[in-house]
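ok so heres the complex, four chains, lmk if somethin looks off
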Amino acid sequence: MNIVFKALNDQTRRSILDMLKEKDMSAGEIADQFEFSRATISHHLELLYHADLVSSVKKGQFIIYSINTTVLNEISKWIVELIDNKNENKK
Amino acid sequence: MNIVFKALNDQTRRSILDMLKEKDMSAGEIADQFEFSRATISHHLELLYHADLVSSVKKGQFIIYSINTTVLNEISKWIVELIDNKNENKK
DNA sequence: TATGTATTTAGACATTTGTCTAAATATAGA
DNA sequence: TCTATATTTAGACAAATGTCTAAATACATA
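and the predicted structre for the whole thing:
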């Protein structure tokens, strides 16, 4: 869970996820949406990848990234449990 | 959102939330569950407080902390939208 | 094979973060 | 008012983080 929250703790990386939820994109397409260097975006993608928040496939010269929902489901579950359990104990 | 993800990006603070979902606790009770100094736990509580993830009331010498679900609901919504939108676009 | 495009890797650096100890503040109760 | 308890604040420091530039790697195509 640590590595996932670390990956989510950055506005640029969260924006990348917001973009990828719409459609799969290459590293370059993603980088074009930001003012940061390609190396910086590549680094962010690596963090997302290691947190298992995105997956990637090579297509010729391009590397296509897509969002990965498995871990997001786990996080969502943890948060919902915080909310629900709190409400339980309030009754 | 930044400040919330920053607050969630620490195992100790997430554990504090896990404890507070069960029942409200004083700063000292919380600190007793960890090996860290009280000052360190106090610092973590401050971060959670500023992220609006917990609230606190003074009761005599004690300060009682409780979990605050409003912001958690927002985070939950953001994550669910990532998941759902991705699934939409996969169809 | 040579060249251009796409992407990552390496290394550097300033900023942020988590922790500590020591000191300060606030409250309860004798 | 004095003392003990609860908690926070201040200041320091090592480790982690986000960014950059320059260089390396991988692939496509002439």
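quick notes: Residues 26-28, 31, 38-39, 42-43, 45-46, 60-63 of chain A lie near DNA strand C (CB under 10 Å from a C1'). thats all i got rn
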